Amino acid sequence: MKKIYLYLIGFVALFAFAFIIYQSNLDSPAVSEDLTEEHLVVESVESVESSSESEEAPTNSTSVSEVSEESVESESESQLVWQGPSTTYADSDGDIIRLSQNLGKPTIVNIWASWCPPCRDEMPYFESSYQEHGSDINFVMLNALESRPTETKQAALEFADEMNLSMPIYFDNNASNQIEFAANMLPLTALLDADGEVIEVVRGQVSPAKLKQLIAKVS
């Protein structure tokens, strides 16, 4: 009788053990499915972030391209070398300026004197052109200082006030520009390109039409 009870107890224990194993196998797929869903969500978020970053990339690429173009333009300008005369002149404060400091923009050099009637006649044309093109072209209005005993700095400045000139007035104080451009008569107008090479020299009074023609050559 005791053996029968022992058999029954063993059988019940075996059945209980088998039932526990069966239940654990049923629960494990659910856990696996939950983990799979979480993994998919993480992958989806990372995919969206990666797509957003790739969409922003062209903007950064364009910016780099623009900077590159500006650098090329800057290098091109810095490679200009002055090809013109190595003369100097003075401003109204007495500071010495080299003609080569006009590098980078076309330059119109006009040598004049207050005692010169043709110089007086053409000066309004230069003033008008300066107001229109002064930001693109250098206007170097050089007074032929001491071309006569009466041609002083004061006489030149008084002439500029009389003509209501907004152009800056400069002084060929050592006559180097008169010698360089062979100004054996006044006025004289010389047209230089952006690197200082002399394109044309006009001796005598410049008409409005001729001045426009000179400006058109370098515009």
Give a summary of the structure in a few sentences:
With 219 residues, the protein is α/β, with parallel strands linked by helices. It has five helices and seven strands; from the N terminus they run H-E-E-E-H-E-H-E-H-E-E-H. Mean pLDDT is 80; it is low at 28-42 and 56-65.
State the secondary-structure class: alpha/beta
Number of helical segments with 4 or more residues: 5
In quaternary terms, these chains amount to single chain
Order of helices and strands: HEEEHEHEHEEH
* Alpha-carbon distance between the two ends: 125 Å
Residue fraction in strands: 5-15%
Task: Identify the strand order in the major beta sheet.
Answer: 5-4-3-6-7
Compute the CA-based radius of gyration: 44 Å
- Give the rounded overall mean pLDDT: 80
User: How many individual β-strands?
Assistant: 7
Unreliable segments of 5+ consecutive residues: 28-42, 56-65
Shape: elongated
**Fraction of residues in helix:** 40-55%
Main sheet attributes: strand count, strand direction, barrel closure: 5 strands, mixed
